[in-house]
Please model this.
Amino acid sequence: MNSITLIGQLGRDPELKTSKNGRTYLQNSIYEYSGKAENGDPVYTWRDIVAYGSTAEAIARNGFKRGRLAVTGTEKIVTYQDKNGVERMRPEISVTKVDIIDWKEEKPKTEKTEEYVPEGFAKIEDDIPF
Model:
């Protein structure tokens, strides 16, 4: 059995989908920085990923474009037909485990709280002019 673990960034915001038989899944890609080309441009390595069920739901709920994650799964070769009808092959990682490194953070609720005034000091109501 093959196993692969990658750490990279999501190529786009995750979108949860449902198959014809009712199974939830997610298709995306992750990329990692591979260094610089001779001309100085950054080089990235891209990998297609697919996740199912609760793993897909976790990525959809907590992941975001350019957010980092670690995925573990098995790599398989997928065949498909391109727009010209030519049969092509590409590697794809079927994710069995995910660790989200950069979580989608919710904005903190801004409740107006009473300002603390230490004992012996008066609260200043006016704006200070400096």
Notes: DSSP finds one helix and six strands in the chain.
